[in-house]
Amino acid sequence: MRRRLQTWSELRPLLRMRPLELDPVARRLSRAYTVRDLRTIARARTPRSVFDYVDGAAEAEVSLRRARRVLRDVEFRPSVLRDVGEVDLSTTVLGRTAAAPFLYAPTGFTRMMQHEGERAVARSAARTGVPYTLSTMGTTSIEDLAAAAPDGRNWFGLYVWKDRGASTELMARAKAAGYEALVITVDVPVGGARLRDNRNGFSIPPALSVKTVVDGALHPSWWLNFLTTEPLRFATLDSWQGTIEELAAHMFDPTVELADLAWVREHWDGPLVVKGVQTVADAERVVGAGADAVVLSNHGGRQLDRAPVPLTLVPDTVQAVGDRAEVYVDTGFSNGADVVAAVAHGARAVMLGRAYLYGLMAGGERGVDRVGEILTTEIARTLRLLGVRSLAELTPEHVRLP
């Protein structure tokens, strides 16, 4: 072959320089193609103790690793030569249409991860067309969240406190503010042993020590936002100085039992979701007691280590209660293909927590928007590659669980 140098006219079409992006948030998010990419960005931008609070789990973190391993080992079985020119990602959640089969779960202390906090998540969820649940341990009040996202599907996540009067008041405030559903979390009679937090000396709010000051030098934008926005505090209790485990022991009621769902029903007449169910038998018990939906959840691996993997419970739970209640699932889900696997086996939707928090830490409200974009793109692509045009066409034949 005769060699020669290419001319400028031949090289010029190959030179496609990316336009210079002056907005640092847009520049960061443009490099994120997956939720794991957002996690990498979040880790670089957030103090270690805060990032580890989100990223970590209980004790040896076996529950979380098992959940992720099961999702990793899922096997898809596509059907080819199907018309998948158009796909429909919508589903029905508590009698209303959701644009995609995922929900944003309740997470505590959200303004600690990034100063925009719960308001940013709720606004983003409204744009994506999915429900968002505000936690009892949130850093934005029930009323302020409702005002920030008046068109959103706002749910309230309740931890039952030892002070039942305070819990009753929270339900009344959520009802008055127009919240659609109540999500009662039942897997926290005591706080799990979050060893990463203990080793980091993590507390609420973060304590100013030599260690945190040094960490602040490495994450100046986080500390600048922390020090120049409204003080970080719980929206539903006056103050707290200590660890999460100590807070749970102080506030949460370990005597809550099935009969207490009747007490909840006395004060809440809207849809009721019970989160933290880890056996089929318990799913049958809570649905029999009046729950409209159950969340198969081990709290993201943050409570009892070596707990069941929630995804593996989906088929039997759907068979047992699916004709009477909706079944949601969480723990370990980090991409749209994971969501498709759960829906194929009968889950109505997947609850996501860490995923949107990574987006929030990476880019604030726009970072959460990016999570929604990534997930919906991945779900649509997975459906097309499986040869189905809607979630309703998915069956267990499309997905083999390990």
Automatic annotation (TrEMBL):
One of its GO terms (molecular function) is oxidoreductase activity, acting on CH-OH group of donors. The active site is at 299 (proton acceptor). CDD domains: alpha_hydroxyacid_oxid_FMN. Residues 27-402 form the FMN hydroxy acid dehydrogenase domain. Its cofactor is FMN. Glyoxylate binds at residues 53, 159, 194, 299, 302. Keywords: Flavoprotein, FMN, Oxidoreductase. The keyword Oxidoreductase applies. Belongs to the FMN-dependent alpha-hydroxy acid dehydrogenase family. This is Alpha-hydroxy-acid oxidizing enzyme. The lineage of its organism: Bacteria, Bacillati, Actinomycetota, Actinomycetes, Micrococcales.
